[in-house]
Specification:
Elements lengths: L14 E7 L4 H4 L3 E6 H13 L3 E7 L25 H7 L27 E10 L9 E7 L14 E5 L13 E4 L13 E7 L2 E4 L2 E4 L1 H8 L5 E8 L12 E7 L3 H12 L1 H7 L7 E7 L8 H10 L4 E7 L13 H7 L1 H8 L4 E7 L3 H15 L4 H10 L3 E5 L1
Parallel strand pairs: 12-13, 12-15, 13-14, 15-16
Antiparallel strand pairs: 1-2, 1-3, 4-5, 4-11, 5-8, 6-7, 6-11, 9-10
Helix pairs in contact: 2-3, 5-6, 8-10
Length: 402
């Protein structure tokens, strides 16, 4: 169940059990521990656990006895609750139970390295088109490959990557090395036929010694024509996988082509054909923060706007357009500025143990996000340098930057 950060009313008689691990020192830290508290003490307890470095595994509501009522009737006097120790006292005095077993892996069937560089799969280009609107900066394409006919079949799940080995040789006459790209299609492919994979590729471009240099693999992919053959490896990666929980909350922080895995999550959550095919009906909260230099550079923008219209209770779309919007200080609007603007709401979600945060894009975005989260956490009396490792350990903080 979801833990709210709103204040409980005095009439709320619910009781919750919180299962925690990695709390205390020595033997106690290795043991699983349980706390049973009334609703009014639930949020303070969770905050105390977070400050103490504990990991919350389960929060569950206790069933009331058959003769108990959830609230007092009109004219009746509610029985006074038994005295409850403070969260700090509970954390110190709770008796350890048996050592916690490792939580079952929810992605046990994730395929990895079905095809390796020495023996890649040969895919065929199905489609290749620009994702940018007029006036955009640079070049970004959506490229789809046919995966049919492989033995084994090259399949993947949302959040994984594949490798591409471009044709030709390097300056030393050796075959080019593979480049990894985040997959931009769900496991069913854009055509829902389970036999294609799509990438979102930006052509790398930079200046060196007065010359414009273009990336080898990104240019190869942006220029490639339908019908061409491509060497593909993988899939790889388990860092960016979605939780199986249909009521999880998903916060997504993306810049540029870092939108690729986020697109897979959102298609799985909100495309009708995906929901029908998967039997997985997302009911949580999804919040996408997308950074781009110009509106024309927003990728898959029409789809995300549609999801927000069709699922207003489940999806929120926040844009940071650096060359068109200003932050509160009058400077360019970056994704970290949006994080600061919505810090209270973000941390209210993070306090829910079902919330996962995903970040993907250029490595340069990490320091800005970290700075924003540090300031936002401090405003709530939290230490981000302590909280972030806890989220990572709990497999709720997912980062893939390049």
């Amino acid at each position: 169940m979801r833990v709210t950060t709103a204040k409980a009313s005095g009439a709320d008689g619910r009781v919750f059990t919180v299962v925690v691990e990695s709390l205390g020192t020595g033997v106690q830290r290795r043991a699983e521990r349980r706390f049973t508290v009334p609703f009014s003490q639930l949020q303070p307890l969770m905050q105390t656990i977070a400050r103490s470095g504990g990991r919350i595994r389960v929060v569950s509501q206790e069933s009331l006895p058959a003769d108990a009522s959830a609230s007092s009737g009109v004219g009746e006097q509610a029985a006074a609750p038994a005295p409850t120790p403070s969260p700090e006292a509970a954390a110190v005095h709770a008796a350890p139970t048996q050592p916690a077993a490792k939580a079952p892996v929810s992605h046990a069937a994730v395929p990895v390295n079905l095809y390796k560089p020495k023996d890649p799969f040969i895919g065929t280009v199905v489609d290749n088109y620009s994702l940018l609107a007029d006036g955009a900066i640079g070049r970004v394409n959506h490229i789809t490959f046919d995966l049919a006919g492989g033995d084994p079949q090259l399949h993947y799940v949302e959040g994984q990557s594949i490798g591409i080995i471009p044709d030709g040789t390097d300056a030393a006459g050796k075959p080019h090395k593979l480049r990894l790209y985040s997959i931009a299609s769900t496991r069913h492919g854009d055509n829902m036929a389970d036999n294609t994979v799509s990438l979102c590729v930006r052509q790398l471009e930079y200046e060196k010694d007065g010359q414009t240099i273009y990336g080898v693999c990104s240019t190869f992919l942006c220029d490639i024509q339908p019908g061409a053959k491509v060497k593909i490896t993988g899939p790889v990666g388990k860092e960016m996988l979605l939780p199986e929980d249909e009521e999880a909350n998903i916060i997504m922080l993306a810049t540029g082509t870092g939108i690729a895995p986020m697109r897979t999550y959102l298609r799985r959550m909100f495309e009708p054909t995906e929901r029908e095919a998967n039997g997985w009906n997302f009911r949580g909260k999804a919040w996408l923060f997308m950074g781009a230099p110009k509106t024309a550079n927003l990728l898959y923008d029409d789809d995300f706007n549609r999801y927000q219209t069709e699922y207003p209770d489940n999806f929120r779309y926040t844009k940071a357009i650096s060359r068109e919007q200003q932050n509160s200080k009058g400077g360019r609007m970056y994704i970290q500025d949006r994080v600061l603007e919505h810090a209270d709401e973000i941390f209210a979600l993070i306090e829910d143990p079902r919330t996962h945060v995903y970040m993907c894009g250029l490595r340069g975005m990490e320091p800005g996000i970290d700075e924003a989260m540090t300031a936002a956490a401090a405003a709530k009396g939290l230490n981000w340098s302590e909280l972030r490792p806890q989220l990572k350990k709990a497999e709720r903080w997912h980062v893939e930057t390049y």
